[in-house]
Structures are given as C-alpha cells and as structure tokens.
Write a structure and sequence with these properties.
Distance between the termini: 104 Å
Number of helices: 7
Radius of gyration: 28 Å
Mean pLDDT: 88
Structural class: alpha+beta
Helix content: 40-55%
Number of strands: 4
Order of helices and strands: EEEEHHHHHHH
Strand order of the largest sheet: 1-2-3-4
Length: 154
C-alpha cells in the first residue's frame, strides 16, 4: 500500500487544497505542492498568477472553485485564464496585447478629405466619394480633425 506524504506547509500559508498551499511574504507569492515550493512570483504580477493557477487546474491539481475560494477571484476570470492557457500556453499570458488597427480616417484619407472640403464640396458628398460613413465623417469635423470651409455670402 502506498503511503501518502503528509503535507507540511509553512506557517502563515493558505491551504488551497490538501496538497496545494500559497504563501505571501515580502511582496512575493510562493506556491507549495506537498512540501515543495513549485512557483514564485511578485505579488502584483497578475499574468504569472493567472498562468500558474490555470496550469494547476489544467494539470488536475485543483478545481476552478478551489482557485475562486482561495484567492477571491471571479469564476469567469479563472475560466478565461484556463482557456488562454489551453489555447496559447504559457506565452499567451506574456504576449503583447493586440491593439486596434488603423482607423478608417487614416492620415492619407484625412488629407484627401480636407482637399475635397477645401474645393467647396459638401461633407456628405466627400464622405460618399471616399466610402466613409457620413456619421464618422461628421464626427471628425466636430472633433476638429477636418475643417469645413464656410461659404461666402455675396
């Protein structure tokens, strides 16, 4: 018969499961599995926290609710971290965030639009010519990115 090793966690640590504990000391968080420390990160390193808890779940060491109860995080945040870990692995937590691409009104489009406005064309006509929604075009005029030429009265 296999004899289980009794977990002996450091004093002041929080038990997540009967095999896993976590300790926060001097701005560092250390995770213990059994009697061994298995991972350490800074207390304010959210990416490492999400990565290691997702890894613990994926490897079968904890249930998602164990993480929710022990750390006071939301269930959906745990599910998102697990999904990210399963799809992209560890590097998914440390990759640069994707940012939005170029807007509809790029510098070239703004330059062309301003030239057409300077020629005296109406904003709605310019928007239609350039294939831009009229609301988007008018918003850029209100924001001051484009300037509508005022017609002179005779």
């Amino acid at each position: 018969m296999v004899q289980r090793q009794l977990p002996m966690f450091p004093e002041g640590s929080t038990e997540v499961t009967h095999d896993l504990a976590v300790e926060k000391r001097d701005g560092r968080v250390t995770y213990f599995y059994g009697t061994l420390p298995v991972f350490t990160h800074d207390a304010n390193d959210d990416a490492s926290f999400k990565m290691i808890t997702a890894q613990f779940y994926t490897n079968g060491y904890v249930k998602q609710m164990d993480i929710v109860r022990a750390f006071g995080v939301t269930p959906i945040s745990v599910k998102r971290a697990v999904k990210l870990y399963q799809e992209k692995g560890v590097q998914g937590f440390y990759a640069e965030k994707k940012t939005r691409g170029a807007a509809v009104l790029t510098d070239d489009v703004l330059l062309n639009a301003q030239q057409l406005l300077n020629e005296g064309q109406e904003p709605c006509d310019v928007a239609d010519q350039l294939g831009i929604k009229r609301d988007t075009f008018n918003k850029s005029i209100r924001a001051g990115r484009l300037h509508k030429i005022k017609k002179k009265k005779h």
